[in-house]
């Protein structure tokens, strides 16, 4: 598939797991189909929500092949290639090419601190290695290495670098990135912090990559379309519900337990996070179900 300009809602799909920690391919396929039925604009596999740094290479490959089969001819597939070093990232880029990804999504190298010029070198090496479109992903809470607006702008000059996903929550830098790259017709700035969805779209963001799209893909599409059509009251109504869901993500201390439980309530999988993370408790699951129903979500 030729990658269109990235806009709209692109869910960062989770990796459903069985209680033995094997990939639940049937649940993953079903969740992707559900997202597609809600008219999302692409699928992002192997991101933060997918628990990608925790997966074995075998788990990763099984999940990617399942998603690829559901995306063929239907949805652009973005594949995360996030690792601690450039050399390891290039191995994941090769894997993404082999499974038929439509684009790769890369963070800065993490664990060790790197300078902005070293982040530029990192993305230059990825560009030299692949013809696949590249998305820059800024998630400093996990990498420890923020990618500022000037660095994004420099990397965006490389051929084939098509978008920037920002999960920093730093709105002054986000706005500056939009301003610096606005004249780059091929380049999209995407918001990854779901509680900032409406304001980011009004500011000029091209789209959203929200974790809650695993919970409410249809409502996130509705939010995006409402902003684009000027129906701000409707957009803020959805945003209010998104904020309630955001608060629920920390009900038992860690967001992935809740993020994995929501698709379970929709009928996709067992809600099992990767080891050693705990499943959401029965009490937490009941609270989440009540919250989702209150927002009009139809549960399984």
From TrEMBL:
One Pfam family this sequence matches: DHDPS
Recorded GO MF terms: 4-hydroxy-tetrahydrodipicolinate synthase activity
A GO BP entry: small molecule metabolic process
Class of the enzyme per the UniProt entry, highest EC level: lyase
Keyword annotations from UniProtKB, A to Z: Lyase
InterPro entries: DapA-like (IPR002220), Schiff_base-form_aldolases_AS (IPR020625)
Entry EC no(s): 4.3.3.7
Protein family (similarity comment): Belongs to the DapA family.
Stated name of the protein: 4-hydroxy-tetrahydrodipicolinate synthase
